[in-house]
Amino acid sequence: MKTFKLKGLKIVSDKEKEIDTKVLTLIDGLVINREDDLGWLIEAYVDSSFQAYFESIEEKQELIIQAKITREENDPAFFITEIIGINKINEDNINIIFQGNVVDHRKSRIEELLQEILEQGYQGASLLKKFKESI
Hints:
The structure is a single chain. This protein has helices at about 50-55, 105-120, 125-135, and strands at about 1-15, 20-25, 25-35, 40-45, 65-70, 75-90, 95-105. The protein is an alpha+beta fold. It has a six-stranded antiparallel β-barrel with strand order 1-3-4-7-6-5. The longest helix has 13 residues, at about 105-120.
């Protein structure tokens, strides 16, 4: 098992045939490569103002996230994940735990692929299914 510092996190989603990203302001975070069939764990420690947002997307089976690992200047890694926990830490902060697998492609190719799929008219669950088939 390997543990890394989470330095940046974005949630990537489709919105009206465009790629939309939600940038999170992190207080702290970890990325853990479990090196097993369960893949990676990503923990984001954030302000509780994000709680309603995460509760609104928690039911999605899979989310695409971009994580900057170790240093902010590193290229982001893409993951296909699901939310496995939203926990209130104290009055002001929560943590969100994602579990999933890394997508082993360069950022520019991922963005191009998503844009192509969106231009083909895919949305919602069908977009994610087509994306997974394409990678």
